[in-house]
Specification:
It is built from 14 helices and no strands. The protein is mostly helical. The protein has two domains: 251 residues, Dynamin, middle domain (Four Helix Bundle (Hemerythrin (Met), subunit A), Up-down Bundle), CATH 1.20.120.1240; 32 residues. α6 runs antiparallel to α7 and α6 runs parallel beside α11. The longest helix is centred in the C-terminal third of the chain and has 41 residues. The relative contact order is 0.15.
Length: 295
C-alpha cells in the first residue's frame, strides 16, 4: 500500500506538504544525475571536452586570414593614406572579424548543455515514483523546470557571448608589442624597400601574427566558456530549478492544490482493490486466529 501511495489528505496544509515532498524527491534524483550518482551528467563534460574544442578548430580562420583577405582588409582600413609602420587599424579589423567567429561555438555550447539538462529533467521525472501518482503535478513540474532551464540558457548565452565581446573590446597589447622585436631577431630588415613592405610577404606576416593572437584567445575561451555555462546553467539548475514553482505553490489554495494531486484513475482503482483485498486478508487472518484459540 505504501508503494501505491496513501489516500490524499483533505487538509490544505497536508496537501501542500505532499506536493513539496514529491517535488523534493524529483530534485534529489535530478541532482544525482548531475553529480554522478546516476548517468547523464557526464554528457555535460563531453560538451566541454569534445564538442567545444572541435567547433573551435573548425572555424574558418584560414579563409579569413588568407593573403587576399588580409590585403583587402588592411587596404580598406588604411583609406587613402597607407600606414607608415604597422597597419594597426588593419590588425584590429582582422582580429575583430576573427573573434566574431567565436560567437557560434559559444552559443552552441550553451544550447548543447541546455539540451542535456532538459533530457535529465525528463529522465528524473520518469524515475520519480511519487510523481507517477499525479499526472497533473507531473505536467506542471515539467513545465516549470523547462521554463527555468530556458531562463538559465538565456542568461548563459548572454554571458558566453559577453566573454567573446570582451576579447574584442580590449586587445592584449603586450602580445603585439613583442612582434617588432621578434621580427628583428629573425633577421627582418626594417630598411627594406617599400615595395617589399606592401608585398605578399608583408601581408602573410600580418596574417600569421593575427593567427597567433587568435590562437591565444581561443585557448582562453576554451577555458572560460565552460566556466560561464556551468555557473549560469548547471549550478543554477542544481540550486534553483523549482524556486519559482515553490513560490507559486505557496500562493495556491486548497482547491488548487487538490487539482495538482489529481491521481491517475487507474492507480486509484488499483489501490482500492488492494485495500479491499487487504481487509479480506485481515478478516480471514482474524477468523483463523479465533478458531485456533477456541481449540
Amino acid at each position: 500500500m505504501d508503494h501505491l501511495g496513501r489516500p490524499i489528505a483533505l487538509d490544505a496544509g497536508a496537501q501542500l506538504y505532499t506536493v513539496l515532498e514529491v517535488c523534493r524527491a524529483f530534485e534529489r534524483i535530478f541532482k544525482e544525475h548531475l553529480d554522478g550518482g546516476r548517468p547523464g551528467g557526464d554528457r555535460i563534460y563531453g560538451v566541454f571536452d569534445n564538442q567545444l574544442p572541435a567547433a573551435l578548430k573548425k572555424l574558418p580562420f584560414d579563409r579569413h586570414l588568407s593573403v587576399q583577405n588580409v590585403r583587402r582588409v588592411v587596404s580598406e582600413a588604411d583609406g587613402y593614406q597607407p600606414h607608415l609602420i604597422a597597419p594597426e587599424q588593419g590588425y584590429r579589423r582582422l582580429i575583430e572579424g576573427a573573434l566574431n567567429y567565436f560567437r557560434g561555438p559559444a552559443e552552441a555550447s550553451v544550447d548543447a548543455v541546455h539540451f542535456v539538462l532538459k533530457e535529465l529533467v525528463r529522465k528524473s521525472i520518469g524515475e520519480t515514483q511519487e510523481l507517477k501518482r499525479f499526472p497533473t503535478l507531473q505536467a506542471d513540474l515539467a513545465a516549470a523546470a523547462n521554463e527555468a532551464l530556458e531562463r538559465f540558457r538565456d542568461e548563459s548565452k548572454k554571458t558566453a557571448v559577453r566573454l567573446v565581446d570582451m576579447e574584442s573590446s580590449y586587445l592584449t597589447v603586450d602580445f603585439f608589442r613583442k612582434l617588432p622585436q621578434e621580427v628583428e631577431n629573425k633577421g627582418g630588415n626594417p630598411q627594406a624597400p617599400v615595395t617589399d613592405r606592401y608585398g605578399e610577404g608583408h601581408f602573410r606576416r600580418i596574417g600569421s601574427n593575427v593567427s597567433s593572437y587568435i590562437g591565444m584567445v581561443s585557448d582562453t575561451l576554451k577555458n572560460t566558456i565552460p566556466k560561464a555555462v556551468v555557473f549560469c546553467q548547471v549550478k543554477e539548475a542544481k540550486q534553483s530549478l523549482l524556486t519559482r514553482f515553490y513560490t507559486q505553490l505557496g500562493k495556491k489554495e486548497g482547491k488548487q492544490l487538490l487539482q495538482l494531486l489529481d491521481e491517475d484513475p487507474a492507480l486509484m482503482e488499483r489501490r482500492q482493490q488492494c485495500a479491499k483485498r487487504l481487509e479480506l486478508y485481515k478478516a480471514a487472518r482474524d477468523e483463523i486466529d479465533s478458531v485456533s484459540w477456541t481449540r
